[in-house]
Predict the structure.
Amino acid sequence: MTERKMRAKVRVGAAIPHGNGTETVTFFGVSKSEAYPPDGSDENNSFARWSPSVAFQMLIANPALVGTFNVDDTFYCDFTPAPK
């Protein structure tokens, strides 16, 4: 059986701090770039083509991470099956 793996490229759309030392970070899939490079190789265009809609939120409570996510930062999210 082929192992299922997926990599998504996401952009921070919002980082909302809460008064209790946590924050909610909202991620969206990257969108295609304004202009395609001559060879069509722009990474964001590739991600947008195969995952045209991505959105998720994460409540962060780890004090070392709260406040470290900024709007428009981009990240890779790797998905691999986990044991049940």
